[in-house]
Amino acid sequence: MRQNQWKSQFKVWGKEILFLRYLVLSSLTVVLFNLELIKHLEANEFEDTASLNMYGMPGTIELPSATNLPDGQFSVSSTAFGGTIRVNLSFQIFENVTGAFRYARLPSSTGDHRGYYWDRSFDFHYLAFKERPLFPSVALGARDFIGTGLYSGEYIVATKSIGSRTKISGGLGWGRLAGKNSFDNILGFGSRKIRNIGRGGTFYFDHFFSGNNSPFFSISYKISEKLQFISELSSDSYNHETSSPEGFTRKTDINLGIKYIVDPSLTLVASLVHGDALGLTVNMGINPINSPYNSGTEPAPMPILQEKYRSNQPKLKNEILAESKRLLDLDGIELRTMTLSGGTAEVGVINRQYSNVSQMIGRLVRILSLTTPADVYEFKINVIDFKSNFFLSTIVIKRKDFAKNELKFDGPEQLWETVSIKNSENSIFYADQSSIGELSWSLYPYLETSLFDPHDPIRFTVGAELLAKYKFLPSTSISGSLRQPIAGTLDDIKRGPKAGLPNVRSDFMYYHRDISSNLFINYLTLDQYLKPSSNLYALINIGFLELMHAGVRAEVIWKNNKKPYGFGIDVAQVQKRETDGRFNLKNEHFNTYLASIYYDLQNDWIIKIDGGKYLAGDLGSTISIKKTFNNGWEFGAYATLTDVPFETFGEGSFDKGLTLRAPINWFTGKKSRSYASATIKPITGDGGAKLNLSEENYLYYRVSEYSNKNILDNWTRVFR
Length: 720
Description:
Blueprint: H1 2-32, E1 74-81, E2 84-94, E3 97-108, E4 115-129, E5 137-143, E6 146-147, E7 153-162, E8 166-175, E9 202-203, E10 213-222, E11 227-233, H2 239-242, E12 254-263, E13 266-273, E14 277-286, H3 317-330, E15 333-341, E16 344-351, H4 357-371, E17 378-384, E18 391-398, H5 399-404, H6 411-416, E19 420-423, E20 439-453, E21 456-473, E22 476-488, H7 508-514, E23 520-533, E24 536-544, E25 549-559, E26 565-577, E27 585-600, E28 605-613, E29 619-628, E30 634-642, H8 646-649, E31 655-663, H9 664-668, E32 675-680, H10 699-703, H11 708-713
Parallel strand pairs: 16-17
Antiparallel strand pairs: 1-2, 1-14, 2-3, 3-4, 4-5, 5-7, 6-9, 7-8, 8-10, 10-11, 11-12, 12-13, 13-14, 15-16, 17-18, 18-19, 20-21, 21-22, 22-23, 23-24, 24-25, 25-26, 26-27, 27-28, 28-29, 29-30, 30-31, 31-32
């Protein structure tokens, strides 16, 4: 009998392993964008990524610990045990703050969720005190503080190292973490209310640290540099999981585990959960701060020509222009115009290849020091946006200052004190006729995903995308995208449109169904750029703005590169496109207008607040916050609250999501301005819906690239 039980257990476990493998590979594909890039991660030096528990948060097996990850660390983890599967996305938001988003399948026998239930949840972990010689580290946190509440629980935990091999943790838990051996609340808070798991997405602040609490303990012992043994005394009763036939039997409070560190970015944890269920956890971490190519693989820059070696032999202007253009082209910088007057060489350039704008500036100055006459004492650089032909910023650098600071330890800092940067006072570069009639195109593969469908949590489509752009005038162009799907599962989404609001977004499955095998127009627009003044920028788009909507859109922003803030207005009148992605339109009209405030918090965080009318006619506001790294990585989150009641919005209660943007050069070490991006949305609803445009289509992000702060943040690379 016992033998048959174990055979059945291993049979179930085999199925879980296969499903776990699918989820791990799929989630890593979305996050890393290309699994071929994983080989480049081996060179990274990360701290203990294995300190993540089954919830993707700092901890041991399933319990929390008072630890944290390196600042900026992004982790993907997957867990399978006893019928439960979890995929966690974790991010070290601040030095002491960790956040996580989770998508989980868990056995349940509650209400309408008998069998298996797909659940979304968010966690928060705060390291209040770091460990000292005589005192432990202390942390507190909340699980599932905005979700259905199936994992809802709070904790206070302390962790102390004993020697170099042993760590012990102990704490008190509430909610899920007070299911066993509980006693009256030591904080004196009232009883814990039962949460409604039907809709989710609602904050329950009155639940925090309420109800009974229970103690929990854990110990980890380092057997070797790669191998650790873990033991836990858990207070989680697993009521939902153990009451379901698809779950497991909780035989003991003790969990046992072995942790194996494959390399600094990948760890495995095998565990025996509560004496009955075998568990496997896979943790993979990426830290944007640590690139596989810290210095890049591009060729060394041109030498700086010192004053004593400059030639006084006069050169013709055409010779200077031709030689400068040739050398700059070789270095990925396009020279559009050049004038020599009164000891100043003034140029207009487009940065074609450098994601680090300070490095581009440094390489440009080096080449100009080689090609310009000896009597030129300063370089005036007008940066032109390659897409709009906007003059963005004017940077003035003294030739002598650049040369004398190259070899100094604090050379970049000394040079910065002499540099002048301001918004360009030039309007759009109308005098430049070279771009008229210019046709550019590219052909790339594309990947589109849909996450968290309860019938299939990961759906995707892969195909080929043709991008093209033709310039009628320097400020006027037509651009478009044709896509040909090749394979995928997006055409099999079973969720239908939602009731209560105009279906501006929730009927997206009809579009994926009808374009599943056909060539379609992703977007096709006539774009007109305007620059009324040095701080004011405008854009008008006319045509097929995105897959689902066509019409007219106008955006105006004010941005002074010396100020940490900016303002914008975005207005659109659109009509619904037919689901075949061709030229026909539906008789469904919508309009939207949003006012925006941007503020750079000066600590790598940018906050954006939108307010106004959304596509479905609802009124409200969106708060977005984004952490940016000097190397181009970006992590963000947003939430939209409108006058649409949570009940009308449906599952999830309101629109929210996570954003990720990764520079390709971080993975390859080669010059590139290309990025891969992804938006992770738990729910696609009609409330709070905007036009589906990429970040590059918003003027603020194009203009602010050459702001004083952005250049300063990367200024250490000016001599590289």
